[in-house]
Specification:
Elements (H helix, E strand, L loop, with lengths): L4 E2 L3 E2 H30 L2 H27 L2 H31 L1 H9 L15 H4 L3 H39 L6 H7 L1
């Protein structure tokens, strides 16, 4: 069946491990970058919230990775139970971050170019060169595109791990009665 593979070519367990490792890496790097440079784009409180949520996504992906590595029914089940809430909050995070970026264009421009805008904001420090060299609208579009890709990867990771969870739960019942549960797991 098509949904018993990851990306249509990897076995579901190996592909799930690869995909969870990728999500851990992306969200850990994103969390670190948001902790470091988030206050340039958002208020300090919102930057910490967004970075913390990135860390939560990395931790839940780590939970799935450990469960897949150890064939742990309990860890996989815990991930499947928690991840739907994290995915729902991920949609809210994408929307709030997009709104915050759109509403704070002047703040970002003031940080980049050192100008004082009409609201009396004076830049506190220098911004990173990688986002100051691009136009603000282009930067915001790429930032939101990256958030959407991150969200889609998280949803696909949830689907792959959920499929593994269902196969792990139902597989021993598809084999003859003489096979033990542990033997059935290694047959997958």
């Amino acid at each position: 069946m098509w949904c018993n593979n990851c990306c249509l070519c990897f076995p579901i367990r190996g592909g799930g491990m690869w995909l969870t490792g990728l999500v851990i890496l992306i969200n850990a790097i994103g969390g670190i970058l948001l902790f470091l440079w988030g206050p340039y784009f958002f208020s300090s409180t919102m930057a910490v919230l967004f970075a913390g949520f990135s860390v939560v996504q990395a931790v839940t992906a780590g939970l799935a990775f450990l469960g897949l590595c150890n064939w742990s029914y309990m860890l996989i089940r815990m991930f499947v139970f928690i991840q739907w809430l994290v995915a729902f909050l991920g949609v809210a995070r994408v929307g709030v971050m997009a709104f915050q970026l759109e509403s704070r264009k002047e703040h970002i421009a003031a940080e980049c170019w050192g100008a004082v805008n009409d609201k009396g904001y004076s830049p506190q420090g220098t911004a990173a060169a990688f986002y100051c060299s691009t136009p603000i609208n282009t930067f915001i579009m790429f930032f939101i595109g990256g958030l959407v890709i991150d969200f889609v990867l998280n949803l696909y990771m949830y689907f792959v791990v959920w499929r593994f969870y269902v196969r792990m739960r139902l597989y021993p019942f598809q084999k003859p009665v003489t096979m033990a549960y542990d033997q059935g797991l290694y047959e997958m």
